[in-house]
Amino acid sequence: MPISTHIRALREKIGNDLLTLPSVAVMLFDDQHRLLLAQEAATGLWMTVGGAIEPDETPADAAIRECWEETGLHVEPAAVLGVFGGPEFRVTYPNGDLASYVTIAFLVRLIGGTASPDGSEASALRFVSREEAAALPMASITKELVACAFMYEDQPLFAPPKWRPDQVG
Known about the structure:
Layout: H1 5-14, E1 19-28, E2 35-40, E3 46-47, E4 49-52, H2 59-71, E5 73-84, E6 90-92, E7 98-113, E8 122-128, H3 130-135, H4 140-151
Parallel strand pairs: 1-7
Antiparallel strand pairs: 1-4, 2-3, 2-8, 5-7, 6-7
């Protein structure tokens, strides 16, 4: 995954230390209720389309931009599918960089474009059923996002809170 100029500048200052990074995931279903996934060029793992939200960019704009850059498809956000984060969304990269992602997953509608992987982040694109997705190799974060996408029923998904004020002290 290419590193944005903003993240590269932060990494020059803090090294591999933990960064909390806002990100988006794009959930595009076809008329057979199959979800669009991309095969990550660097690892061969399957992933959701999406990526980092750049400084001063709205999450909806990031979803549209990331989908366009990775797939050549123009989409529009239709709903927030869910908001995800926490220990399950912490990643240690091979170079030692630590990241804790807060991901906003958008359900999107196709407006236009021609599906074509960008070749740098995505080497292949594929619409998959729930069963097909379960059999594909993917990171644990992706597995959770994909499972939630197939469960979505018009109410945004998020982990229930664990913290309460009476737990302080």
